Amino acid sequence: MADTQFSVTTSPHLRTTVTVSSAMRDVLYALAPITLVSIYWFKFNAVFLIAVCLIVAMLTELLFRKAMNKPATLKDGSALVTGLLVALCSGGCSAWWVGALATFIAVGIAKELMGGLGWNRFNPAAFGRISVFLLTPFFYWLGLAFSPLQASFGGLDVITSATPLALLKQGTALPDLGSLFLSFPGGALGETSALALLIGGAYLLYKEHIRWHIPVSIVAGVFVMALLFGDHSTTPFYLTPFYHIFSGGVLLGALFMATDWVTSPITPRGRVIFGLAIGILLMIFRLALGPTEGTCFSILIMNAFVPLIDRLTRQRKFGEAPARPAPVAVKPSLEKSS
Amino acid sequence: MTVKTFPRGIFLPHYKEFSEHEAITSISLPKEIIIPLQQHIGAPCQALVKVGDRVTAGQKIGQSEAFVCAPIHASLDGTVIAVEPRPNFNGKNVESVVIAVDPDQIEPTWPERDTDKLSTAEIRSAIKEAGIVGMGGATFPTHVKLSPPKPIDTIIINACECEPFLTCDHRMMLEMTEALVEGARLIARVVDAPHIVFGVEINKPDALEAIKSNLGRDEHITIVPLAVKYPQGSEKQLIKASIDREVPPGKLPLEVGVVVQNVATAIAVYEACRYQKPSYERVLTVSGDAIVRPSNLKVKIGTPIGFIIKECGGIKGAPTGVESDEEWFSVPLPKADPAGKIILGGPMTGWSQSRLDIPVTKGTSGILVFSPQMITETDYKDCVRCGKCVEHCPMFLYPNFIGLYTEQGRYDLAAEWGAIDCFECGICVYVCPSNRPIVHFVRETKEQIAAAARAAQNK
C-alpha cells in the first residue's frame, strides 16, 4: 500500500524554468551582437581569439574540476561566458596565447580554485584580464623568445590595440561620438560598438537576469565625474561625459561584468552604491592613471567590498522599524571566561 | 477600481482554469473513513468512542479540556472499527477513529436559530462546539483566534485564494455568498470590530460582484480588490495590502487590531451559529494536470484521498477499471522517472503524499495530481547570489544566507538572517536558478532553534 510511485518532496511543488544554464545561455545570446561586430572589424583575428578563449575556458574547467574530484559543470555554461568575456576584453590584435593565459587564470584560479561558481569573490573575466595586463612586461620577453607563438592573419583596416583614450594620450585624431556609438574599430573586441552592447544589455534586462541598478549607477558615476573633472578646455567636444560613457570598456563592464550575479551586492541599495563606486573609480583611473583597464580594475576593487556592502545595506524585515545592525559572522571564541 | 497589493511577492501562473467553472458537487459514500483526533494546531483530542460503538453524522467523537483545541465530530453514520494511529498528511501517525460507513445514511437535520438573537458568548461557544478551525490550511482553532487579548477594530475576510490551482474558496463565494457575508458579520460581532473588509483578488470578478450585491447598505463592510500576486492570501501580506498596517515580526495580526478569517471558516461559523452544525465536511478542489475530472467537491472529513481521486475519474494514464477497495489505495501513476505527485493543499505550500489512504482533514483545501511533466525540480547546486530570492521575499528576508548558513550548521546566523520570520511561502525556491531547497533549510533551522531552546529550558 505504501509502495506507490509518487514523488515526495518538500514544498513548493512549482518551479520557474529559469536555471543557471538557461541564464548563462541568455548571456551568450546577449553577447552575440558585440561578438559579431568585433568579428566584422577584426575578421579572422577575432574568430581565432574567441575560439581559443572558449576552448581554453572549457578545458580549464574540466581539468580543475577533475583534479579536485568534483562533478563536471560544463553544462551550466559559465565557463563559456567567462571565456567569451575574456576574449571581448582583449585587444583585437592581441596574441592568442595571451588570451589563452587570461582565460586559464580566469576560469582556473579566479573561479574553480575559489570553490567554483557561486563562491568566487572576484569577477573571473576581470581577474584574468588584469592578471595578464600586469604580466605584460614579461610577455614582451616571451614574445621575442617564442616567435612561433605569433599567429598572423594578414593586415587589418583597424587601429590596432589602441583605445580612443590611448589615442588621445598619443595625440592622434579621435573618432567622433556618432561613430563611437555605432561602431569603431579600436581597443578591445568588446569595445567596438556601444549600440551592440546596449542591445545585449536590453535583452538581459528584458529577461530579468540583470536589474537596472548597477549599469545605470556606473554610467551615472562616470557621467558626473566626467562633468566635474573632465578636461573640457583642451578638447571641448570629444571629452564630453557621453564620450567617456561610449568609449572604452564602460558599457561592457557596466552591462556584462559588474552585473555578474556572484560578485555583485544582493540588494538594490547595495547595487547602487557598488555601481556608483565603480563609475567613480573608473574615472579616477582614466583621468589620473593609465588610459586602459580602468573598468576591470574598478570592478575588481569593488568586488572586494561586496560582503561589506551587503552587511551595511541590510534591509529591514517586514513589519520591522528601519535600521538594524547586521550580524557579523564572528568566530566562536575558544577561551571561555569562567 | 483601485487594485491594492503588498510589496514584493511574485506573479505565478494561475492554473485555475482546470476547475474554476466547476460547481460544487458531492461524491458517493466511501466504505471507510479515517478521522484523525488532531486536525488543528494545539492539544490533541481524546477519543470519546471505542471500537464497536455506533456513531452518527455530527456526533462528537473527540475532545480535550485544553483551551487551544477544537473538538472532532463523526462525519457519517457507521460503526467504529478501530481507534489507532494512522498516517496523516504531514507524514506523522496520528491517533484516528476509523469508521465503517453505513450504506444507508440519514441526512442529519439541523434546527434553525435566529443568529441576531445570539449573544457574543453564545456565538463563541457555538464556534467552539462545532470544532471550527482555520480552514485555509493553518488550522488554528477559531474560537481561540476570536478571543483576542487586545481590542480589534477590523475583521478581514481572506478571499484571495492566491495559491495556483485552488478554486474552492472562489466557488463558495459564488454559491454560498449569503452565508459568507453573515458569517463575517457574526465574526465581527464576537470581537466587537466595527469594520469588515473583504480582500478579493481581481481574477474573481464574479465573486466580487456576488459579495457586493449581498452586502445591502451596510457601511461597515468594504470590498478591497487585490492584485493577483502570490502570497496575497498570507495574513500579514493581506493586512498590509488591504488596510496598510504592518504586523511586527513574531507578532500576530491582533497586534495591529486585526483578525483575519478565511472564506470557508466564515461560512462554517455561519452554519455553526445558524444550525449548530459541526465542522465535519468541507469544500475542496481536486485539480492538477493528471486528474481526469477536475472538480470542486463537498466531502466528509476523513474521506481517504484515494477514494476522492477515484471519484474524479482517477489519474490520467493509470489503469482503468480499478474497483476493489484495496486497489484504489494504490492507483499507480504512469510509469516515469521522476514519478508524478499527489499534493494536499496548494502547489506552493502543500504536502506531497506517498500514499492514498491519507484522510481529508479540516485544513485540506485541495488535492492536486501532477503528472511527471509538472515536476521540474532537479538536484540543487551552489548559490550563485543572483538575488532573486531576496528581491521577491514578501517578508524582506535573506533566503540565500539562510540556505548557506543552514548548510554550514550555523543555525544562529540562519536565524539572524530571518529563518524564524519565514512563513514558508516557497517563492525563494520557485525562483532559484540553482533549485536550492530553501524552505527545507528554513524548517531545519527552525527545528534546531526550537530544540536548542528546549535544551536550555531543561537545564
Quick one: overall form of chain A? globular
Helix fraction of chain A by DSSP (H/I, runs of at least 4): 55-70%
The order of strands across the largest sheet of chain B is 1-14-13-17-15-16
C-alpha termini separation of chain B: 58 Å
Number of strands of chain B: 17
Strand content of chain A: under 5%
Number of helices of chain B: 14
The low-confidence runs of chain A, each spanning 5 or more residues with pLDDT under 50, are 327-338
Major beta-sheet overview of chain B: 6 strands, mixed
Tell me the distance between the termini of chain A: 58 Å
* Number of discrete helical segments of chain A: 13
The biggest sheet of chain A amounts to:
none
Indicate the topology.
The complex is a heterodimer of chains A (338) and B (459).
Chain A: H1 20-67, H2 78-89, H3 96-112, H4 124-134, H5 136-145, H6 164-170, H7 177-182, H8 194-206, H9 213-229, H10 241-246, H11 250-257, H12 268-288, H13 294-312
Chain B: E1 24-26, E2 32-36, E3 46-47, E4 54-55, E5 60-63, E6 72-73, E7 78-87, E8 93-101, H1 120-129, H2 142-145, E9 154-159, H3 168-175, H4 177-191, E10 195-201, H5 205-214, E11 221-226, H6 235-243, E12 258-262, H7 263-275, E13 281-287, E14 295-300, H8 305-311, H9 325-328, E15 341-344, E16 351-353, E17 366-370, H10 388-392, H11 399-407, H12 411-416, H13 427-431, H14 438-458
Parallel strand pairs in B: 1-14, 9-10, 9-12, 10-11, 13-17
Antiparallel strand pairs in B: 2-8, 3-5, 4-7, 5-6, 7-8, 13-14, 15-16, 15-17
Helix pairs in contact in B: 1-4, 1-7, 3-5, 4-5, 4-7, 11-14
Description of the molecule:
- Chain A is an all-alpha fold and 338 residues long.
- Chain A has a single domain, classed as Ammonium transporter fold (Orthogonal Bundle), CATH 1.10.3430.
- In chain A, 58% of the residues lie in helices and 0% in strands.
- Chain B has 459 residues and is of the alpha/beta class.
- Chain B folds into three domains: 16-21 and 111-275, 3-Layer(aba) Sandwich (Rossmann fold); 30-102 and 280-374, Ubiquitin-like (UB roll), CATH 3.10.20.600; 388-458, no CATH class.
- Chain B has 14 helices and 17 strands.
- In chain B, the strands form four sheets. A six-stranded mixed β-sheet of chain B has the order 1-14-13-17-15-16. Chain B has a four-stranded antiparallel β-sheet with strand order 2-8-7-4, with no helix packed on it.
- In chain B, helix 4 crosses helix 7 (263-275).
- Chain B is globular and about 60 Å long.
- Chain B starts with 23 loop residues before the first strand and ends with a helix.
- The model of chain B has no long low-confidence stretch (mean pLDDT 90).
- The chains are: A mainly alpha (338), B alpha/beta (459).
- At the A-B interface, helix 1 of A face strand 15, strand 16, helix 13 and helix 14 of B.
